[in-house]
Amino acid sequence: QVQLVESGGGLVQPGGSLRLSCAASGFTLDYYAIGWFRQAPGKEREGVSCISSSDTYYARSVKGRFTISRDDVKNTVYLQMNSLKPEDTAVYYCATDALSAVVAGNPRYWGQGTQVTVSS
How high is the pLDDT of residue 30? Predict the structure, then answer.
């Protein structure tokens, strides 16, 4: 059974940093892509970043500030978020499926989400 559990969210001041974790079970990262998505109140869900066995992808709004990485031993994907802005406030979800599905924004398997709030 595929399971994804996010952690690491919280309240941070503008300019601060957070690291989100996505612990995967029921499958190995080698064969799937993992994506981070976010949804702010009243807004549509948007893709933030994605990692496959060989590539990484970033939304323009986070490129240069966020870094996605993976630890295949721990079966965990991380999202290091630096220089956070109030507009980064959202619930962040990790999700997995084949790369094409993740890039298209339609992965089958989702975590429960973790709240990130950027505010002074």
Answer: 79
Widest CA span in the chain: 41
10 bridge partner residues: 116
CB under 8 Å to 23, separation ≥6 — which residues? 4, 5, 7, 74, 75, 76
* Residues forming beta bridges with residue 51, ordered by sequence position: 34, 56
pLDDT means over runs of 10, the chain (120 residues): 96 98 88 95 96 94 97 94 98 96 95 97
> Which letter, b or e, does each residue of 8-38 get, where b requires 16 or more Cβ atoms within 10 Å of its Cβ?
bbeebeeeeebebbbbbeeeebeebbbbbbb
Alpha helices in 2-114, H assignment, sequence order: 99-103
